[in-house]
What we know:
The protein is built from one helix and 25 strands. By secondary structure, the protein is an all-beta fold. The relative contact order is 0.08. Mean pLDDT is about 95; it is low at about 275-280.
Amino acid sequence: MGMETAEAEGMEFALEDGAVTLVKGCCPDGEAEIPERVEIGGEELPVSCIGRGAFEDMPVSCVVLPESVVYIAEGAFCGCSALESVLLPSGLRFVGRRAFYGCLSLRRLDLPGELECIGEEAFSDCFSLGSARIPDSLDFLGDWAFSGCASLAEARVPSGVGTVGKGAFSDCASLMKAEICEGVAEIDDWAFFKCMSLESIDLPESVWRIGGGAFSDCISLSRASIPSGLRSLGGGAFYGIVFLDRDGDALEQLPESLCGRSFEGSDCYLRQVRRGFSGSLL
């Protein structure tokens, strides 16, 4: 069956394989409210997808998505530098690659409780984004997902995410707190590279691999707890940080040297302390 199309409220929609996709949006006066249902193919059907590049580079400042939307495709809002507010539906499951890349004015994200996937660079370079709580339902966090979110102050990676993607929170200069939940197994290369405000790393026992440069140039780090099951530590994983044993001697940055130990200190020198911290991360 071929693709059928329709227009509603100045927007273009397509019906394919029983699903309705918004293929071209519009934003009169900078606002866009997508209808929940449209007349297409001889019947009224729910809009389930915001299509690839639907609002790309448009001067939209406010977007309201209907509850029927479960999928935001690649680049849907890419380059919408004026976008300040987006209301996401509670049943949203998938945010595609570069979906909100370069939304420079976006300040807050309320990610819904059924979200399962955040694609590569989905929110990268959202410079003003200060808050984005990631729900427990998430099971995939793509490479560079929040890279360059310079205003992001806190991050939480839930237990269902097996791997923190490559560069996922890199260059988040304001990031002070990062909670990695028990169940996360791998922290990929450059995951927290240049998080220059990050104060503490309390890694759960489930983490067995830390990739190259993962916490490189985290110059404000004053506490670190390394899991006892760590088996792989990439080159420069903690570049710029010096770990010391209880006697003040420098430790090699190898799994067998750091695993199962906790460290505290300042000015990029962290000395081994009794296992566990007196305070908590969040």
